[in-house]
Write a structure and sequence with these properties.
2 helices; mainly beta; three-stranded antiparallel beta sheet; 229 residues; globular
């Protein structure tokens, strides 16, 4: 079903009313509570907003709670995505002040909340593909787990808490090059690349001579600044 069905799109209207967690929480999943300072709204994908969080494992086996209502832990949060950011249910990027093991995943400061909104079935396929990749023993598979999210006292739905893809011994375990490296002995490997759909400055484009309208856009994330060498 997840592999074969077309995408479903909900009506793209923004509900500005707050949803009482006591009424909406399913009590079947862990709950991530996030508060921004003075309930500052998260309005773009560029600027991090300071805030705090605590994670309630909600009795789910294999998970541990982090922080409490009275003693939340600091983080910063911003929007994430391109087309997905324009939808009513927003995806987010989280940066914790201290590394934490979220929902049984290895410790890190860097996490993503995938919204699973209009492209819910695609995210379902992502989850299925992650599990297949794990079974195949791939060198790295992005870990993720479903949870419910309450932002500034507003229940905003079910999300997939997901590892941010980055160079790290517990994530993409490759050599991390310095920006503008010129030593030929150090620029032979350690590349974090993304096949992209969007125009980015840090991008190299490949054109098929037989199909000039088909351009493969490869965005390089690390190193961020590539030398001429």
């Amino acid at each position: 079903f997840l592999l074969s069905q077309p995408h479903l799109f909900a009506e793209e209207t923004v509900d500005t009313t707050k949803h009482d967690p006591a009424e909406y929480l399913s009590n079947t999943l862990p709950v991530l509570y996030i508060s921004t300072v003075d309930e500052t709204p998260i309005v773009n994908t560029e600027d991090y907003i300071e805030g705090s969080y605590h994670l309630d494992a909600n009795g789910c086996e294999g998970y541990e709670s982090i922080g409490t209502v009275d003693e939340p832990l600091p983080l910063t949060i911003k929007g994430r995505g391109n087309a997905s950011w324009r939808l009513p249910k927003k995806p987010y990027r989280l940066k914790l002040n201290a590394k934490a093991s979220m929902l049984g995943m290895p410790k890190s400061k860097h996490w993503v909340l995938m919204a699973a909104y209009a492209d819910w079935l695609a995210h379902g396929r992502d989850y299925l593909n992650f599990k297949i990749s794990e079974k195949l023993g791939m060198p790295y598979t992005t870990r993720c787990a479903p949870c419910e999210v309450v932002l500034n006292g507003d229940y905003i739905g079910m999300y997939f808490l997901t590892e941010q893809i980055r160079i790290d011994k517990d994530r993409v375990n490759i050599n991390e090059q310095d920006d503008e490296e010129t030593d030929s002995n150090k620029i032979t490997g350690g590349w974090l690349l993304e096949i992209d759909n969007y125009q980015e400055e840090s991008q190299i484009r490949f054109v098929d001579p037989k199909k000039p309208n088909q351009i493969m856009k490869v965005t390089y994330h690390n190193p961020e600044v590539i030398s001429n060498e």
